[in-house]
Design brief:
The chain is of the alpha+beta class and 169 residues long. It contains four helices and twelve strands; from the N terminus they run H-E-E-E-E-E-H-E-H-H-E-E-E-E-E-E. The strands form three sheets. A seven-stranded antiparallel sheet has the order 3-2-6-9-10-5-4. Strands 1-11-12 form a three-stranded antiparallel sheet, with no helix packed on it. It has a two-stranded antiparallel ribbon with strand order 7-8. It is globular and about 50 Å long.
Length: 169
């Protein structure tokens, strides 16, 4: 049996959801991270992923400029950085310099991977669709990487700024 309620109450039932950090190079060459949880795989062949970013976010301009981005699946140990990257604008701050994350060069695009992430996906922007106050960005995955430690737990949002982790299968 279903009970009618408002959208904001019902949508809380979707948690937990994966937390990712998307990185893109801006017009000054600075690599800017933003935390997202609205991401999905959209195709097996070719492998493609989509992320949703608000129209007002600096990272949207960076992705549009560079036409490429990295999706990093955050590890539990990265939760302070995930909160920071999602709450501070890259317009004013070099978030990677302020944060304490280790990076390494991407292999196929001009971007950075987050070394401690569960996995990283290098993406080339294939298209976008405005969906209200957000833009859905679709990237073709051109390289994939995973943490050498299979025990690293992935970070999941539980709602209301609470986090938890699981070991990927």
């Amino acid at each position: 049996m279903q009970t009618a309620t408002d959208f904001e109450t019902a949508i809380l039932r979707k948690y937990p959801e994966c937390v990712a950090i998307v990185l893109a190079r801006d017009e000054r060459g600075k690599h800017n991270p933003i935390t997202v949880s609205w991401l999905t795989r959209t195709s097996f062949e070719p492998p493609m992923m989509a992320v949703s970013i608000a129209l007002t976010r600096y990272s949207l301009a960076a992705i549009r400029h560079s036409r490429e981005f990295v999706v990093s699946l955050a590890a539990v140990a990265m939760s302070p950085e995930a909160v920071y990257f999602g709450s501070v604008s890259g317009r004013d701050v070099d978030k990677l310099a302020e944060g304490r994350v280790q990076t390494e060069p991407a292999t196929r695009i001009n971007a950075l991977l987050l070394s401690d992430a569960v996995a990283n996906f290098e993406c080339v922007l294939e298209g976008e669709l405005q969906t209200g106050d957000h833009v859905l960005l679709v990237g073709r995955v051109v390289a994939s990487h995973m943490n050498a430690d299979p025990g690293v737990r992935g970070l999941y949002a539980l709602g209301n700024y609470r986090f938890g982790g699981v070991v990927p299968g």
